[in-house]
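Q:
My hope is that you can spare some time for a protein that puzzles me. I hope you can help me see how the letters and the C-alpha cells relate. Thank you; the sequence and its C-alpha cells follow:
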Amino acid sequence: MFEVVISFIELGFKHIIPLGLDHILFILGLFLASPKIKPLLIQATFFTMAHTISLVLVANKLMLPNSNIIEPLISISIVFIAIENIFITQTSIRRYWVIFLFGLVHGMGFASAFIETTINNTYFYISLFSFNIGVEIGQVLILLLAYFIIGKPYGAEIWYRKKIIIPASLFIAIIALYWTCIRLFVHV
C-alpha cells in the first residue's frame, strides 16, 4: 500500500509539474490577485477540495462529463480569473466560490487521467487522497515560488499592480483564450 501512496502522490505532482500548464496558469492567476501567502494557500485548498469532489463523482459514475465541454471550460476559467485580476483590487468571498466552482470543472478534467490509472485498484480512495496530496504539493510549490520570487520582494510596491498584475494577467488571458479557441475547434 505504501507504494500506491507514493506512486499516486508522484502522479498528482506530475499532473501539475510539468504536465499541467493550464493548472499552473490558473494557480498563477490566483497568485496575481493576492500576493499574500495565507489567502493563496486557502484558495489553493478550496480548488483542491472542489476537484476532489468532482473526481469522486466522476470516478463513481455519478457524473459523466463530456470532454468536448470540459476542456474549453477549463481554459475559459483561466481567462475569467486572469481578466478578473485586471478589474478587481481586493479578493472577496465571491472569489473563493468562483475558485471552488472552477475547481469542480478542473476536477472533471483530471478525472480521465486519474481513472485510467485506478481501474481495478483496490486502494481507490487511498489513491485519490494520495493523488490530491501530489496536486496540492505541486500547487503549493508554484505558489511559494511565485511568492518568494515576485510577491514578497515586490508585492507592496506602488507599481506592482501596473507592472506585474495587469501585464501578467493579460498574458495568461491571451494564452488561455488561444487554448479555448483550439479546444473548441478541435472538439467540433
Summary: The two ends are 42 Å apart (CA to CA). The mean pLDDT is 88.
